[in-house]
Amino acid sequence: QTRYNFVSNPAGATYVLTSTGQSITSFAASDVQNIAGNYTIQVTPPASACALPTSFTIVVTSKPQAQILNAGGPYCVNSPSIQLIGSPTPGTWSAPRNSVSATGMFNPAAAGAGTTTVTYSGSQGVCTFTTSVDIVVTAQPTIAINVTPEPGPNGYCSRDAQPIQVTATIN
Length: 171
Hints:
Elements: E1 4-5, E2 14-17, E3 22-24, E4 26-27, E5 37-44, E6 54-60, E7 67-69, E8 75-76, E9 82-83, E10 85-87, E11 92-94, E12 105-106, H1 108-111, E13 114-124, E14 127-138, E15 143-148, E16 165-170
Parallel strand pairs: 8-14
Antiparallel strand pairs: 1-4, 2-3, 2-5, 5-6, 7-10, 9-12, 11-13, 13-14, 15-16
């Protein structure tokens, strides 16, 4: 977190955070528990400056909480594209292999099988935000079918007493 140091010319000015009455020499948002608001600093110059007291205001803005909604998953590599929703808006999407568009459309085929990290980032005023989500994409399964006994050249006879066994294996 950035801390701003106060410097006067000539040296010797005093700075008071008016909301607390506390004398300070620098300011960071943590000094006010990161609570958004306008904070007035009263400046009293040294007697040698022949200047009147003055004040200035520091604005503390809440940091936006970034979210990616609707990520879900896992998805099959041949699933249709999924519209991701980023908050707050506007924001920028990024992911490897161009698997997410500028509008947040995630393409499982472009991502390929495995885990893809999608990032959403942006800024509101002076505050930046970023968040990421891992989306799992699985390979398209293959199915192997085995029939025993093997059918003859003309198939099976309906009067055969022998049972037919069909086994399907998903890989």
